Each structure stands twice: as structure tokens, then as C-alpha cells.
Amino acid sequence: MRRLFLILHKYRATLVFVALEFICFWMITTQNVFLSASFFNSSNSAVASVLTSSNKVKNYFALGKVNEELATENAKLKRNLKAFQQSIYRLDTRVLKDPDLVGQYEFVSAKVINNSINNVHNHVTINVGEKRAIEEGMGVVNQYGVVGKITTVSNNYSVISSLLNADVMISSKIKRTGHLGTTNWSGKNIQEANLLYIPRHIIPILGDTIITSGYNTVFPEGVMIGTIKSIGLPDAANFYELEIALSNDYGKLSHVYVIKNNLREEQRLTEEGIIGDHD
Amino acid sequence: MIKKSNIILLVSFLGYLFLYLFLFKNIVLFDKAFCFIYLAFLLSIPIDSNRILDMFIGLVTGLVVDIFSDSLGIHTAASILFMYFRYYLIQWSTPQGGYEGNALPSVNSMGLSWYLTYTIPLLFVHQVALFYIEAGGFSLFFYTLTKVLMSTLFTLLVIILFQYLFSTSRKKRL
User: Fold this and answer.
1) What tens digit of pLDDT does each residue of B28-38 get?
2) Could you give all domains of chain A from N- to C-terminal order, each with its CATH number?
3) DSSP of chain A, one letter per residue?
4) Would the pTM count as exceeding 0.80?
5) Domain ranges across chain B
6) Which of residues 102 through 161 in chain B touch A, CB cutoff 8 A?
């Protein structure tokens, strides 16, 4: 017994080291459980308020650019609204009249207070949270297209896993042909992502637009992701190797919109009746 | 009575963390070279300090960085590893005749060549751990390796620069 204690005492530093590293790896592997506690990340209110004040300084230098972008977006929206009001033939009358469908999506505007682009798993922190009815799993967009999905929510802040996060998969389609695929970031270049699972029989063209599919409840249909940049088709492969040039500049995010889908729960329950039957 | 050296350590802890979180975190050269300036604090802890305490300091430092960067556990794991190996590096690079009592590991008191042999392996170990854990394995092996090498170099340059900028006590070396 005494010798055991002597050995333990001799190697105590190594034992402490192993124990601490074990805790770290446990935190890394169960990150989702931990992150949803919203203490150990940047949506923690103390951390977020520090980030906000540091961001205020940064913002000051980008004001002109941000203003210009918002004005451009306003002009575009006004143009769309006018075109919409003036169109005589409204084909999809159900979408226009049904109050449930008209109000299906709500957009909550938010300010980015922290952003990372250089890691393999990149996150964005924004200044809206539970008090504005933000929930985990909601989609986030800006005027240039997809930004990411909400992963953690605290009272006044949320953390987004941006598209530049190797774990995020976005259901997408080729706009011209309508074929379904999945967008996933490769982890290297912040201007490129991969489009997976496009089968051999389709003929994609360089420059084809990639948009969200609208098949899940996160993003509405037709949010811009990017355009096809390179096409590869290995001989034995079932799927194309497509690279997308992303439409969004993730290094410059400033204002974003969180998408609330009011029919989310209904769609989930309806689908569960069929798809979720087996589990 | 709180020792003066402890206050200096606390100030450098806050100072280097602040520098990293609000300045150097945003500076990435060529998309690959990172500067983990907070390691300068971990490097400046006195040579004769307690090993286990060292690792807990590494834990706290890493955790703060992780909370700010939403990368829970990654910087913490790397910092603890850093502190674990620091002990061996200090033992291994002991000058002839041993260390003076309460010597500080700095260019001023130990000389540049000692400081380099002490710093480079530690930075390399820290960055190997950090980037390979972050990448989730060895699938991007060479890409990650270039990140490791470039970051080690960049961090080293900045840390050495800071050593010359903030060298207060000009002790004469024997």
C-alpha cells in the first residue's frame, strides 16, 4: 500500500496531466451537450458584452461600407416589391392568399458581434437570443445568401455554426436542373465549398447557380449559396466532384437575418408520422 | 503579503490574453500563420514554479481563449500539453551549474540561444496538438502541417519581439 502511494506521488504530475487532458477530450467530443449549456461559449452574456464593445470599435471603420450595402439591399427589395405589386397574373394564388403561407417565414435582423473564418469549425456570434424567440436549428442568411445555422442560444445572444464549419451540411439544389445535393465546406478555402451527391446522369455546367432546396425546415427555397466553379467526374465514382464559388464573403459579415419558420413544427410532425415511424 | 512577481504575472496574463483575443486573433497571415501570443504568458512563468499548478494555469488560460473562440476544449488541451512539456524542456535545457534561484525564463536573464531552445519545441508541440485536434484527425495532413510550421514561426517572431520590447529588468548575465 505504501509503495502504491509512493508511486502515485512520484508520477502525480503525469497523472494530473492525463486526467486534465481526458477532461478536455471529453469536452471536445461532447461539444454539443456542453455548448447548449451556453456558458462555455461566446453567447455567455459576460463574454458577449465584452465582444460587443470590441466590435463597436471595429464597426466604426466599416460604417461606410455597411451603409452602402444596406442601401443597395433596400433598393433591390423596393424594386422587387414594385414588380410584384404591378404583376397582373399571379400564378400561385394559394401562396399569396393563405395567411399561414404568407406568414410562414419571419426574419429577425441581428448584428454580428464575433466572427471566425480561419478554423475548421467556424462560428459567428450575433446579438439576438431567446428573448426574441430565437431557437436552435434556425437558419441565418444575409443579402448575399446563406450564413449558417443557430447552434446555441442564450438570453440575448446566439452562436451560429457558419457554412464554413465542416460539420454543417446544407440541403441544396442546382437551380437550372432542380437536382438535389448537399453543400459542405472542405475546410480550406473560405471562398469555396463542395457540392456532394450530384449523380452521374446530370450534366452540370460551369457557372450553374446553387440555391437552398427548401426540403427541410431550416432555409426557405431559393436562398443563394454560390455558383459552380469546377466540375470533376472520376471514372469509377457515382457522384460528381463539384466545387462551388460561395456568394457570401464570410470575412465581412455585419448584419444578418435569422429565419423563423412558423410551420416548422407542423412540417416536422407531419413528416415524423411517416419517416420517423421506424425508430 | 502578495509578492510583486505574482502581480506582474497577473498583469501579463490579462495583458497577453487581451492582446490575443482582440488583436492577434484577427491577424492571420496567408490564411495559415496564426499568432498565439497568449503563450508568451505561459512561457514567462518562473522556472521553479509547481508543475501541477502550472498545468492548472494552462487550463485556465486555454479555457478563456476557448470560450471566446467557441472552440471548447481545443486550446485548453493544447495549453495543458504545453505546460506539461515545459517542465521537461526546462530540465533538458538546464545550463551548466543549474538555474539561479527564482530565475525567470526570458531572453534578458537566460540569453537568446537558451530562450530559442526553450521556446521552439514548446510552440511546435502546442501547435501540432491544436491544429490536428481542430482538424479532427490527419485527413488534411500536409495542409495542417504547413499551418503548424507557419504559425510556429510567426508566433516565435512576435514573442521574441515582445521580449525585446518589454525587457524591464536589465540584469547583467555572468
Assistant:
1) 888 788 889 99
2) 40-279 (2.40.10.350)
3) -HHHHHHHHHTHHHHHHHHHHHHHHHHHHTHHHHHTTTSSSTTSHHHHHHHHHHHHHHHHHHHHHHHHHHHHHHHHHHHHHHHHHH-S--S-HHHHH-HHHHTSEEEEEEEEEEE--SSSEEEEEES--GGGT--TT-EEEETTEEEEEEEEE-SS-EEEEEEEETT-EEEEEETTT--EEEEE--SS-TTEEEEE--BTT----TT-EEEE---SSSS-TT-EEEEEEEEE--TT-SB-EEEEEESS-GGG--EEEEEEETTHHHHHHHHHHHGGGG-
4) no
5) 4-165
6) 133-136, 140, 143
